[in-house]
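Appendix B. Extra example for self-study. Work through it before the problem class; the solution is given directly after the inputs so you can check yourself.
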Amino acid sequence: MSNLTLTPTNVKEMLLKVADVIIESEEKLSQADRDLGDGDHGLGMQRGFTAAKAQLEVLEPKTVSEVFTTTGMTLMASMGGASGAVMGMLFQSGGTALGANDSLDADGLCTFLKGACDGVTNLGGAKPGDKTMVDALVSARNKAEGNDCKSISEACQAAASGANEGMEATKAMIATMGRAKTLGEKSIGYPDPGALSVSIIFKTMSDYAS
Ligand SMILES: [Mg+2]
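Solution. Structure tokens for the complete assembly:
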């Protein structure tokens, strides 16, 4: 099945699926943060997406925007820390950029990704190459924009592929921002946990939309 667009209810189902997969990935994300940081990323993400799931389950969305912004605001309020602020901002600013659209198509996903990149980079100040979640997010945006996608399925596949490439690229980087900036060359060889989370989010969206 190749979906051209997703309805607000589809987007709600998609983000509920994202929440389930992130909650199941707690140990993987915790280990990734133990390798580079204080080890709290998995639990923070699990807490945030458990709260987001509860909010989404009772939402009767009229627009795709409100599904994303509800997720973003709930992550900001429940996760805490720098990760909560940037992960919440990803959904909050991406969703806000979609305005009053009542469906999500390939162009809409690109609009979401542009809004998300702008919001996260304005908030945190990280640039591509700093070994943060920005590497996965900007790579997702570039691949979705560059592929001239015709359907939401294709756009989500491109975003997932780009996010995965961006996450993989963080393994070779020396952290200059974020959780691992004091580790210097010792940060080489490990992916950034936030980038890993972003790659899981877009992979799950792609699995849903395909
Ligand atoms: Mg941490």
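Self-check: Residues 33, 37-38, 40-41, 179 surround magnesium ion (CB under 6 Å). If your reasoning did not lead you there, revisit section 3.
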